[in-house]
Write the structure tokens for this entry.
Amino acid sequence: VLLAVVGLQAQPTYREFGPLSLLAIPRLSASLDAIDAHVNWKVRLRLLMAGQEKIDATVAAKDNECALGKWIYGEGSRALAKDPETLEDLRKAHAAFHQTAGTAVRAIQSGDPARAEAMLEADGEISERSFDVVSRIRKIQSILGQAAAVS
């Protein structure tokens, strides 16, 4: 309903990218919202443009404030101790996503909605960065799922 009010179409969620249950990631199993939150940044940014959302650009740019970031910098380093390169790939993709989100927020807040709009397009930076994060989560799910099967 809120999306209709601001003239937005529903954005894809993690469910449209395939089976993305985080059950293979220890202590993040209750955080399917972590993927949704990253995919749904487009909605939040459009609401910001419409004056219906408040986002701090500095906080948006931080990759250690959300549930996924906390997992990466905490439990993730232990869960992927034998594959630190894969965790680092996720960390970099996640940090790039948040830097891009912060840039989009600053563009909106500084009166450059055209730049932010370009970032929100289907092939824009926000979508690309979000997809990168989701893809890396899927890879980690596969790795941890295989490790659990061997154990």
